[in-house]
Protein 1
Amino acid sequence: GDSVTQMEGPVTLSEEAFLTINCTYTATGYPSLFWYVQYPGEGLQLLLKATKADDKGSNKGFEATYRKETTSFHLEKGSVQVSDSAVYFCALRSSSNTGKLIFGQGTTLQVKP
Amino acid sequence: GAGVSQSPSNKVTEKGKDVELRCDPISGHTALYWYRQSLGQGLEFLIYFQGNSAPDKSGLPSDRFSAERTGGSVSTLTIQRTQQEDSAVYLCASSQGQGGEKLFFGSGTQLSVL
């Protein structure tokens, strides 16, 4: 079945460091890919998305490129801030099933000043 | 309301009791999802409603779990004969349809089974 695998956390970085959170997926058809973020004490919210191969999603300085050849959707940010500390979830929606959204296990990011 | 509303926010119950969790989606949203988030775990898909289509129940962990959505709006997740391993945060989300649009999540119901 469809699945999403994320790198294990927690990821701890100093402010202004470069961030990469790896995400790979298994799916039939041509899925849409998403990154959701959960800030402390808040609900999940969409960070960015890409709906077809080679698309780049971007928001708040974060980027992720849909790589069909490597079935990946890695999240990157050039310079993290303390306020980026949160749990990040990679997710997919396969085009061949009912349309449900499947999430990865989440990666906790801690940014220290 | 302005967002997805879930109630109760916290529920403590005894093992073996039944519980009902409620979700009020954003008005006009045709898709509704239930997920479970256990401590240290990711988001586990439970069930998905889309318009008048038959729900996708493929994520329900056992026949003790069921959900319904009345009138295409409010949804209730029912857990019968609760077990300690059912303890988790149950999240509801809604969206306008399917095909790449974003989900809006509620704050969740923290269920504790003693």
Protein 2
Amino acid sequence: KAGVTQTPRYLIKTRGQQVTLSCSPISGHRSVSWYQQTPGQGLQFLFEYFSETQRNKGNFPGRFSGRQFSNSRSEMNVSTLELGDSALYLCASSGPGQGNYGYTFGSGTRLTVV
Amino acid sequence: QKEVEQNSGPLSVPEGAIASLNCTYSDRGSQSFFWYRQYSGKSPELIMSIYSNGDKEDGRFTAQLNKASQYVSLLIRDSQPSDSATYLCAALQGAQKLVFGQGTRLTINP
């Protein structure tokens, strides 16, 4: 069974640009969450989607947005990139068989803003 | 006060010994708790989940939950060098949001 797939694995962007990251959940999983991981702040929740609806959002500025498609694939977008947005962005999916919301993470997208 | 707190370590344990990792949480509404293992440069991997007070065992791993004390722990028996990693404690808030501690870096010394 394929795991959570995130693309691309690595990205280098310039300040002020925007970026779109993609996540394909495990087949059959309908809940997709996004997290940002930095050495200073650790793992922080960005948002969660279920059946194309955002159910929860973390404390991030409006430059961070996301969406989910009917096939449960999800994208997150960061506009007007800042140096502080450099981080590992992780997508996680949850669904039947995970047992009460255990989330499986993808390999992540390492974003570097220069 | 952080919502989920862990000792950042590093915690150093000799091979074959028991490694004990601890975590406290502040939200009494949290009902589900998870331990993730993260190797350097990799993404977190779910190793244990626990929802009820008491112990839950899976192979060499035992998770313990005490909701009255708002305390979660992970014991690793017969520690192996391959267990060297950062261990992340997470509490589920509102059924959708995982809140993570800062992680405990564990080193198993051969």
Protein 3
Amino acid sequence: EVQLVESGGGLVQPGGSLRLSCAASGFAFGRYWMHWVRQGPGKGLVWVSRVYSDESTTAYADSVRGRFTTSRDNAKNTLYLQMNSLRADDTAVYYCGRAPHDSAWHEIDHWGQGTLVTVSS
Amino acid sequence: DIQMTQSPWSLSASVGDRVTITCRASQTISNYVNWYQQKPGKAPKLLIHAASTLESGVPSRFSGSGSGADFTLTINSLQPEDFATYFCQQTFYAPYTFGQGTKLEI
């Protein structure tokens, strides 16, 4: 069974940092592209970042570029999101998701349950 | 960045109805559109990729169409479990933006 389990969320002050993790199991993690998507309270989905299977290429939303870094450890089957200089508008549930590496459409076919990040003083 | 304008924002319908949700891209994006369904408190679920390819296990009452800049998600014969929020997403190039979402209500 495919499983993605996010962790690392919590309450952080503005300007602070947080590192999210996404533990993958039930599939060949190293063969999939991985994405982060967030959803603010009562809001829609916002794509955050993507990393290719071999970590060769990353991409970010304009709102997080330069502050967030996506990485992965294929040996540990884990995806990470390092979030620095956090702002109140980063408050959201953060989801990780996998996308088949052999699909050009980057469709996220499995999602984690999400982890809540709250940025507040 | 490519903007995805989804309409309507909300939609009231009844069991057995046929509904259509549209997404318009700010530029042509071939068929690089995916559709997701989300229920309250749950992660999104992939319904359709490449504008019209139905995912395994998704009921055939769901269908997608479109190419270029205009895309539609159609649900035939609405069932009670279909009342949810639907999102389109473009993946023509990063950042892979989502539409604002359409809340389908009874």
